[in-house]
Amino acid sequence: MLRIFKQNDISSAFALVIFTFLLKAKYIWHPPGLNELDDFQHGMLFSFPQLSAFYTHHPSLYVFLSICLLLCFSIYFNRVITREKFLQRKSYLPALSFLLLSSFAPVLNVFSTAMVASLILFIAFSKTMQLYHISNPRKVCFDIGMLVSVAALFYFPSILFFFLFMALLLLLRPFSLEENMAYLLGILTPIYLSLSLVYLSGHWHQLNHLVFLNLTPPLKTMAVFPLILLTVVSISMLVYGLYLVNQAGMKNAISVRKKWNGVVLYLFFACIIGIFSKVFPGVPWILTIAPISIILSQTFLNNKEKYNTFTFYF
Q1: Contact, 141 vs 182, CB < 8 A?
Q2: Predicted model pTM
Q3: What is the pLDDT of residues 64-80, one digit of tens each?
Q4: How many domains does the structure of the chain reveal?
């Protein structure tokens, strides 16, 4: 089966669609309970009660539509990884890895403000990876700042990624005060506009009641055995993937090596944010799927095919 996704043609894309719905069918027929979703409809300054109402009345349809969104995003994710030359050849393995990892827990397949933040942050990461090849990137830096700020408005702990993208700017570009100022202005613009909207709508005095920070420490965990199994598998694949990345590092251009360093930083910050969940692991762990998927893709490209097959089924 793995050979199908190592190709880059229409048959691989079709197989990806079929594989996705077979893999996630259980979550469509048996969606997670509302109590497991950890305030999935709340943003920083606003809430979407319609999401909760829709999920309450049509949970299977809600999950189905969420999975369709994940599938579409996995295609975009695959395109970005191919464009940035993280892997040695074109394939659908990054999309496959993304969909596999998002199937580890039911809550990762439910559309939420954290999912929106995750998608926006990866788009910002995609733009950041292009900075290495842009001669005048001030506009892109401003766009990156705006995306990070919008993600924080949907899911406040995402504001921690402010430091990630600041570090990536320094990693991929020589220091430039103008570029960093453009990034900071991008961060401030959505916040200013949001606060202006709150003021104009007459809710300024209720601001302290509107703000929802989503900074809840883990109060309980999922069942012990699945948690241990998930932890062992994830850490094993992560270590193995990083080992293969290091082995292939000398063959890569300097720009690609810097981008891999950016992926590791991305994963580090995403794991910190993943802590803020009432149920561990919960909805915030969707932010870790993108960086882990990039690393996991590398584990399917070992020179010895039998290792790749073992990794896939493991």
Answers
A1: yes
A2: 0.91
A3: 999 999 999 999 999 99
A4: 1
